[in-house]
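Worked example 2:
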Amino acid sequence: MLVGPRATTGFRWWTPREAKVQIRRNEVQARLGWAVVVRWCFVAIGVVGSATAALEGLPVHPRADLLLLSTGLLALSNTLFHLILSGAFFASVAPRRFLIAQALGDFLALSILSYALGVVETPVTVLFLPQVLLLTLLLNWRVSLTMSVVAAAMASMPLVLVHFGVLEVVSIFGSNLPHRLSSSGVLTTGFGLSILACFTTSWYLVSQVSNGLVLREKRLEQDHERLEQVNRTKTMATLHATHELKAPLAAIKSYVYTLRDGYTGALPPAARRVIGRIGDRCDVLTRRITSIIHLSNLETLSHDQLNLREADLYEVLQSECEEAAHRGQPRKVKLQLAPRCKGSFNIAMVDGELQSLLANLLDNAVEYSHPEGDVQVELHSDSVGIHLKITDHGIGIPHGNVARVFIEHFRSDNAVAHKPNGSGLGMAIVREIARLHHAEVHVASVLNEGTEVTVTFPHYHPERGGPDGTHTHHR
């Protein structure tokens, strides 16, 4: 279970250079791809609007040629962006430059559209804002502020050009508002400054939110790295300590057995009982130390260190079920493996570790079953993967503890009462072995009714030499 550290940040009026938003290429490509789809929707709207305007089917009178020009420019630039995104050429394009090119193309198309719709007679200028906000989120403060000023300039450009007589006045409603506004230098300047103030204010507010998120992300990454380092240090210390304990404990155990077996002379019955208990305790400690070392070694393994081979999961499961059924005989716990059904059960396995995962799960099902209880084991395959389901009707797990079963050394109160000498490491070992096999583990349980554990393994793909790379998730 991962617990995210909390992070706080101070308020700044600008985004510092060292806290730039670091864009991941895949994330940017996905956002740029989404933007291309949205543009195609606007192209479709523009085509319909241009055709309707040309046929004079609108209640207003925009210039059809300008609408078509704006739509054609957007379609042309979007086609280019689509080809770049869908081809190998994107790998050599800097994401930020690509984003800036998209924004400039949109600004030009919107500027023409704004002029075609009477500049101040319609709220087309608002369409500049989404691009300003997106650029603020994805670019550093200098570039995003520059692009916000460019957007304000492009939004004001039609009115400015009309004011200087470069363009003629356009009104889609037949009013004199565009003429009165463009004929006054004060009003034209005021309009441009208002747009600039609106865009830069939006940039400022969004940059503060973006800055806070970036600083929080950086602190979270730093905290995560520190936790990883602490975990590595703890693992190495645990390995060292347990190795140091294993040798003297083995010596104590040999001396105890020497006494118990009478090599130093006959012992009174009471002394033999005490010696026997000491030996049993040594066995428990040895198993616990072995489990700790096993878990610590698993935690240090990565996928590139594994020696995987193809194996039939059903055949491995059969062998482990036979041993688990034998261990359940003293308490008359019956373990039943369902007959093999159709489908492939081939997986990529790590020798020894897969057996350990199955043994831990089957032992838990047997140990925590009631005397004369039943354990059902099923295996089936589908397009998702190979599903192993182990169901017992034993003591179960309290509802609040189900999510904690993978935590090292955790044991619920009813489990401790049922089996006092458990280590609480079995499911933690299962968690790590499942990670190495790209498997997903799910535990469902009802107190006093039983537990169902489902492990889903990815199919073996010979052409890839291993599992299909499905992300491991433990719940």
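The longest strand covers residues 374-381. Residues 185-260 form the longest helix (76 residues).
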